[in-house]
Amino acid sequence: MKKKIFLTIGCIIVVLFAAGAGYVWHVLNSVKSAAGDMYETEGGNGNHAAVTDKKPINLLLLGVDERKGDRGRSDTIIGMTLNPNTKTMQMISIPRDTRTEMVGRGTMDKINAAYAYGGVKMAQDSVQNFTGDIPFDFYIKINMEGMSDLVDAVGGVTVNNKLDWHDEGYYQKGYHYARGNITLDTGAKAMGYVRMRHLDPQGDFGRNQRQRDVIMAIVNKMASVSSISRFTNILDALGSNVKTNLTYDDMKNIALNYRDAREHTIDYEVKGQSQKINGIYYLVVGSAEKQRVHDMISEQLGN
Description:
Blueprint: H1 11-18, H2 24-38, H3 48-52, E1 57-64, E2 74-83, E3 88-93, E4 99-102, E5 107-110, H4 113-130, E6 138-143, H5 144-153, E7 157-161, E8 165-166, E9 176-177, E10 180-184, H6 187-195, H7 204-223, H8 228-238, E11 242-244, H9 248-257, E12 264-269, E13 273-277, E14 280-284, H10 287-301
Parallel strand pairs: 1-6, 3-12
Antiparallel strand pairs: 1-2, 2-3, 4-5, 6-11, 7-10, 8-9, 13-14
Helix pairs in contact: 1-7, 1-9, 2-8, 2-9, 5-6, 5-8, 6-7
């Protein structure tokens, strides 16, 4: 069975960024009722003081496909740094095949396997180790179905497509993704767009770029939403698909103090060399690239 590819984003963060001043409190009250279901501390309690003090924060975004009896893997891994002082949001995508240490297990494997072995805790520890021991203040884990529902909730998104192809992947809906600006008017069509890999000359790298393009399209679409009912639909779309150690108070503070962070965006994909080790293909990332990623995050955190 073809392995599914997942799009992830900090949906809660996006909801709060997009809330207009005229009805932000309505949105927050709606979030409060849903926050209890979303809240968990599998990856730690979170650095709530950083949000209270309006400091730059570092979040781990995990896109997973959990089924009954199967935890699945985190096939999408993004480190997101929000700096309210420089009004910057940085997203660093780590390819799922990246070879790294499974912290707590003592073995080397693909980075997406850490979640399968040890859940959010091992995934977070392994990504933190990979980036040079820069801690994550919070994590947001979202199941794939939440992404499809979210695109439906915002009424579709528009992206600039670099390739021309017809869907032949998981959904097999026969969608035509034309080159240029296209509208992904349903969640199913959006997921087909971000899943495609084999028809892209850049493989995983091209797919990851499409994921990040859709992330920003969602952010921009939500920033222009003026209907309270839209936000209600968005919160309904999150539901049980999202788990995070952000509390309601954290969300409220982010809504009020970090909204301008999307004014400047930095989008980066970790680079490496494909190598076959013991019969398995990995993306091997050199020490210079790891240092570059470490420095990028440190700079945004003001370290």
